[in-house]
Design goal:
two-stranded antiparallel ribbon; alpha+beta; globular; 106 residues; two-stranded parallel sheet
Length: 106
């Protein structure tokens, strides 16, 4: 769904790299997962417990929804609808969305 729209999904979790790797293996998640044990990305986004964001290649936040509780998850269709037209027109995800540059990975 997201790849065909030219979108690269990345999960950022409040965990250590070891815990993120375990989470990825246990749930068989194929997405890149980055560990943010200090929650710097959460603070930068203004999130207390998480949320979802659409960030365009120049770093601009095109859309966001911060969670109010742990069950407040954005439906994939709503997230995809927030993707700017450039990606939705089938841009190649490897060129349209540069890889994130995290400090730690899992």
């Amino acid at each position: 769904m997201f790849e065909t729209a030219g979108v690269r999904l990345t999960l950022i979790g409040q965990a250590t790299p070891r815990h993120a790797a375990h989470f990825r293996r246990r749930l068989r998640i194929a997405l890149p997962i980055f560990a943010d044990a200090t929650r710097e990305s959460y603070m930068a986004a203004g999130a207390k417990i998480g949320g979802a964001m659409v960030i365009v290649p120049d770093g601009t936040v095109a859309w966001s929804q911060m969670a109010h509780d742990a069950s407040d998850n954005v439906p994939p269709e709503r997230l995809l609808a927030a993707v700017p037209a450039r990606a939705a027109q089938g841009a190649d995800p490897s060129s349209a969305w540069p890889a994130p540059t995290p400090r730690a990975s899992g």
